[in-house]
Amino acid sequence: MRAIRITEFGGPEVLTLVDDQPEPEPGPGVELLTVSHAGVNYADTHQAEDSYLAPSSLPLVPGAEAVGTLPDGRRVVALLASGGYAERALAPAVTSFEVPEGVEDGQALALVLQGTTAWHLLRTSAHLAEGESVVVHAAAGGVGTLAVQLAKRWGAGRVIAVASSEEKRQLALDLGADVAIDGTEDGLKERIEEANGDKVDVVLEMVGGATTDQSLAALAPFGRLVVFGMASRQAPSKVNVGELMGRSRAVVGFWLVHALKDPKRYLAAPMRELLDLTASGDLQPVVGGTYGLSDAAQAHIDLRERRSVGKLVLDPSR
Questions:
Q1: CATH of the domain at 176
Q2: Domain of 280?
Q3: Can you tell me the distance from the alpha carbon of 30 to that of 67, in angstroms, rounded to the nearest whole number?
């Protein structure tokens, strides 16, 4: 079957299209999914270069999510162990979710990993309370576009979107952000505070480096910085526990893999809510581009160079 195969670690150039990938064989609790579209995530770029939190092994077919049809005809979106960049993939039953009518493939893919991440960042990690201010970094990205909408829906007092271009900032405003600011590192703390009129309650951060440092500095007492990525590949300064205590601030890490250890508890309810909101039109997942499987490397380039917005998907028939 057609698939993207990685046989050496590196950048987008290591994503190779092949037509002789063996078809995966299902086992107990796992079904064969005929993939109509696969999702592309920033974590995939880390996996390709083996810089992700979890180490990778070769050869590798990347892809942690796919939407398609099971042998019994059900249309599902699934979180996968790997193998989504292919015509067929193995879908664990416990992380497969039926897609209701009215939800398109790309929308479903936007929800299964990035949507549940946004849900948990706000609900589980930040414990967002009504009226609190929320800063969303990379607000035009897959997680960001959904986090902006969910924060407003769940009663945030002020949502401050951070994005790298005027076009991306306008998208965040269109999705409900109260204000959108430039994400350039220099002066970021001051721009965040100016946008809120004061220090802020919650920051969702996935850039790393100085962006993390300045976001932490912009927190009000009892504020929470939730870190869920390091797109810049640069580590922030080490957290000073004494300063956290002295200013009553918190730094929380989030990695969706831990939710996968108990998907019935941590994924089923969020996915049900997100799919229902999308089907009703109350949540608008943004699909930023559809690439052929042969253009998977270009999708990774566009992600790494911050050219994209929303969710990127692959079409294995192309």
A1: 3.40.50.720
A2: 3-113+262-315
A3: 15
